[in-house]
UniProtKB/TrEMBL annotation:
Boundaries of every Phospholipid/glycerol acyltransferase domain copy: 131-242
Subcellular compartments: Membrane
UniProt-recorded name of the protein: Phospholipid/glycerol acyltransferase domain-containing protein
Similarity comment: Belongs to the 1-acyl-sn-glycerol-3-phosphate acyltransferase family.
Leader sequence segment: none
SMART domains: PlsC
Listed GO MF terms: glycerol-3-phosphate O-acyltransferase activity
One of the GO BP terms on file: phospholipid biosynthetic process
Pathway: Lipid metabolism
One Pfam assignment: Acyltransferase
Keywords of this entry: Acyltransferase, Lipid biosynthesis, Lipid metabolism, Membrane, Phospholipid biosynthesis, Phospholipid metabolism, Transferase, Transmembrane, Transmembrane helix
Record organism: Populus deltoides (Eastern poplar)
A single GO cellular-component term on record: endoplasmic reticulum
Transmembrane segments: 6-30, 42-61
């Protein structure tokens, strides 16, 4: 048993070493270091020019073609601005693509550290404008399981500690959007960010958990309508965990995310199914609330979850002492009446 746990820790450690050794240079070049990036670009240009020069010499020796030699020299080797402009456009895209791949890679190592057995059904999500992915929510590992296949940009509550550090550094690079439930003004800011994000074709696909909280994977609670007001195609994702080895539900009121991860790493395996379902659009005359309920029906049926008319935020609210006393008094009176009747 201890051998298995040590192996999982080693897998995750190796994953972090590989990830950070590649990610830090890429992130460093992309974020606010234009002079250094420019030097890298110029170095690549001179390398290309040198290779082209060797190509010219090779052509001249092989074919003795002076016309080609003159053309290449004056149109390629003597115009570095053109090559530099082309490479300057390509290098940032290459770095962004590298970030996406590296985030997917570290998520794969996380899943491997739990001995994750994940079966994906349906076509893999593609990057297109004006589409948003929505999923039922059991734990923060939902994001990791989905992220290892596609570099989603997720909307998530801002967390403290090491999770918050990852949010502000690594996950920030894939376009994730953060909010704070305590700040009412955050809703308008986040809504604008969501609308702007789905309009850009080059952005990572947007992933939203419309329940707004973790649910125990037996039920689906009411979906918030924000994801369904973006005038975009909604792509449902259903996640169902098998509790044969471990319960993947994260109760954030009783357990920190660190302890939750340790529980998963010390279990035999995390087993789950993920279904990428048919994209849905708002029907004529349909309200966003009705649209949200229709998508919730689709996810609930596919994952075998029971729909309940509850607001997921109820677990964050506490009843006032007066309300609690009234309920206790009412219950006590009903018990007394039953005893008197007997």
């Amino acid at each position: 048993m201890y051998f298995n746990e040590i192996c999982r820790v080693l897998v995750l450690t190796i994953g972090w070493i590989i990830f950070l050794s590649s990610y830090i240079p890429v992130h460093f070049l992309l974020k606010g270091h234009d002079k250094l990036r420019k030097k890298v670009e110029v170095s690549i240009i001179y390398l290309l020019k040198f290779l082209l020069f060797l190509r010219v010499i090779y052509m001249y020796i092989r074919e003795q073609n002076c016309e080609n030699l003159v053309f290449l020299y004056f149109n390629v080797l003597k115009s570095p601005e053109v090559v530099l402009a082309n490479c300057a456009q390509c290098i940032p895209y290459f770095l962004i693509y590298s970030q996406r791949c590296l985030v997917e890679l570290i998520c794969m190592f996380f899943v491997a550290s739990w001995t994750g057995v994940v079966k994906y059904h349906g076509p893999r999500p593609s990057i297109r404008p004006k589409q948003v992915f929505v999923s039922n929510h059991t734990s923060m590992i939902d994001f990791i399981i989905l992220e290892q296949m596609t570099a989603f940009a997720v909307i998530m509550q801002k967390h403290p500690g090491w999770v918050g550090l990852l949010q502000s550094t690594i996950l920030e690079s894939v376009g994730c959007i953060w909010f704070n439930r305590a700040e009412a003004k955050d809703r308008e800011i986040v809504a604008k960010k969501l609308r702007d994000h789905v309009q850009e074709a080059d952005n990572n696909p947007l992933l939203i958990f419309p329940e707004g909280t973790c649910v125990n994977n037996h039920y689906t609670v009411m979906f918030k309508k924000g994801a369904f007001e973006l005038d975009s195609t909604v792509c449902p994702i259903a996640i169902k965990y098998n509790k044969i080895f471990v319960d993947a539900f994260w109760n954030s009121r009783k357990q920190s995310f660190t302890k939750h991860l340790l529980q998963l790493m010390t279990s035999w395996a995390v087993v789950c199914d993920v279904w990428y379902l048919e994209p849905q659009n708002l029907r004529p005359g349909e309200t966003p609330i009705e649209f949200a309920e229709r998508v919730r029906d689709i996810i609930s049926v596919r994952a075998g979850l029971k729909k309940v008319p509850w607001d997921g935020y109820l677990k964050y609210s506490r009843p006032s002492p007066k309300h609690r006393e009234r309920k206790q008094q009412s219950f006590a009176e009903s018990v007394l009446r039953c005893l008197e009747e007997k």
